[in-house]
Amino acid sequence: MKDQSQTTAFVQASQKTALTPGYMPGFGNDFETEALPGALPQGSNSPQKCEYGLYGEQLSGTAFTAPSHQNERSWCYRIRPSVKHSRRYRKINLPLWRTAPNVISDVVSLGQYRWDPVPHSDTPLTWLTGMRTMTTAGDVNTQTGMASHIYLVTASMEDTYFYSADSELLIVPQEGQLRFFTELGIIELARQEIAVIPRGLLYRVEVLEGPARGFICENYGQTFALPSRGPIGANCLANRRDFKTPVAAFEDRETPSRVVIKWCGQFHETRIGHSPLDVVAWHGNYAPYKYNLNDYCPVGAVLFDHPDPSIYTVLTAPSGVQGTANIDFVLFRDRWNVAEETFRPPWYHKNIMSELMGNIYGQYDAKPQGFVPGGMSLHNMMLPHGPDKDAFEKASNADLEPQKLAQTMSFMFETRFPQHLTKFAATDAPLQDDYIDCWSDIEKKFDGTPGKK
What we know:
The protein is mainly β. It is built from two helices and 24 strands.
């Protein structure tokens, strides 16, 4: 897919990021884009000499020999090869960003938990220093599992750049607006949108509107993909055309810069003398993207009963077990309830998946009280959960007219692994100690009388 209508002029050395982002539509497409005319080679990936004195370099997100429909890579044409962005490293400490395995002996992860929004700090926080890990699952060393984080950002990264060798990041803003200046282009991100930053892609985060707070799913496993729709067919849920990948943009700045890398759960930094965001043109299918959650087209029951919540899956990261995800990203947005003779909220259940939920805005129908915007809840694998008493009584006795669930948007990070609480989640985050009591006043209604409901 050639970006012809919108090329992005490069940033002069005296400028900061003054670019207007542009996007190309489609999920998993083979894109091509150039910020200077003729910078992208045609007919070959690695010419003997590239235009403008650029260097050709491939960024691979999968093994070279992965099946063609799963193979992910992008060819980049840059001012310097990325080996020039890498010098001797030294370890640094970001103590509140944790990585699996992270089992803490004196923290009890077995339970149903809920948190109020993590408050902002008076201390200026960047994308790196403002990360707060809530749960971890699986093992980064075997490239399975995930971690969930809250980010609190009030300050731009300036001349600091970052990439994760461990994971791709799914970012879900709850307030504020951020700009991600990546090697492959610029993404601006606000509430009701999400973005995915691939493993190994370098970027800087700037604050456009702060303070910014949101949720992150750090995916150690296979990359996120669109779920199979099965009998739903070709349309609805998240449609491919609504995903947006940025056009090429670059910096040519000679300035002291710091590059931070996350590798096997440890953080390292190196110092260089220039901006590493120097990709002038690129083509391929391994790239960052964003998606507007208001474009998600939900599908539900139109006569009776309640479909499994998997019907609301936006993105899924597969595991080695068919039909069982390493991670599902599930969205509960405004929609119509029309099912007849049906208990409409989510039913009581326990299952093999561990469910971490976050509230972007509004009220969640199964928990009308206490689950506030910016808050989170965790129901770990094989632990029962479901509506509180008020939600149960209301839904059991409501007139089942068509009902619009409006002004609501919550989500779920669901994984096949148990999610272990971090020390921060157990002791520092605003845990609702009385959450488990929301089911304590559920009444016994059974009396053995035939035909009684």
